[in-house]
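Retro notes (design track)

What went well: tokenization of the new backbones is finally stable.
What didn't: we kept losing track of which sequence belonged to which structure.
Fix going forward: every design gets posted as structure first, then sequence, in one message. First example under the new rule, 217 residues:
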């Protein structure tokens, strides 16, 4: 889970099941320390997508006044964690559906690309269609990082560079191809979630899939 604040900074934390609900840990301690969060402060968590939240911290006025007199408070232990919510098992599917809906609502336009040899072999680059760039008013600086996310929840960082009046993905695209077993003829749908984030759905080429099944038998 990625936590964002109004400063523009972000922190990555682990989210794990916890007695019918979920909790944030493994990274939460750093978030607390970096943002100077104390006992009594109120944190509002606003869901941006399934794995992103905007956090607004309202300091406890009593703690704030004590801090100004006595200096900064002691740090929390490294194993600090926070419980998001405790829910009954029968309500868990409701929360999951809400998370999926929030994630889906953040997805914008998309484009399809049938993988060619240069996409998945040898050079291994992916051109972003110029019409898609124009229609969505996209603009990137040299070697900006694009995050590609799949339905498994995993993500990869790739470079976006200028290419003959448009843009292409490289530097990280090769790892994305290898890790997801993408082959020539497969169709990838790229769904724009934000300027530097896309969700990718891979549809295997039926011919390639058939050949693989015959080889395995």
């Amino acid at each position: 889970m990625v936590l964002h604040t109004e400063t523009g900074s972000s922190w990555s934390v682990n989210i794990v099941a916890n007695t019918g609900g979920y909790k944030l840990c493994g990274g939460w301690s750093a978030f607390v320390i970096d943002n100077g969060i104390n006992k009594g402060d109120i944190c509002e968590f606003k869901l941006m997508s399934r794995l992103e939240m905007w956090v607004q911290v309202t300091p406890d006025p009593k703690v704030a006044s004590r801090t100004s007199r006595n200096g900064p408070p002691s740090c929390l232990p490294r194993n600090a964690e926070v419980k998001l919510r405790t829910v009954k098992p029968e309500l868990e599917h409701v929360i999951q559906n809400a998370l999926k809906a929030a994630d889906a609502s953040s997805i914008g336009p998309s484009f399809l690309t049938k993988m060619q040899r240069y996409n998945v072999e040898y050079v291994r680059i992916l051109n972003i269609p110029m019409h898609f760039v124009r229609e969505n008013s996209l603009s990137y600086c040299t070697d900006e990082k694009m995050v590609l996310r799949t339905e498994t929840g995993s993500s990869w960082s790739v470079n976006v560079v200028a290419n003959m009046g448009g843009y292409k993905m490289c530097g990280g695209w090769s790892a994305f191809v290898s890790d997801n077993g993408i082959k020539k003829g497969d169709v990838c749908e790229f769904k724009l979630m934000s300027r530097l984030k896309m969700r990718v759905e891979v549809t295997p080429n039926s011919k390639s899939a058939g050949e693989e099944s015959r080889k395995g038998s």
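Added context from the reviewer: Confidence is low (pLDDT under 50) at residues 66-79.
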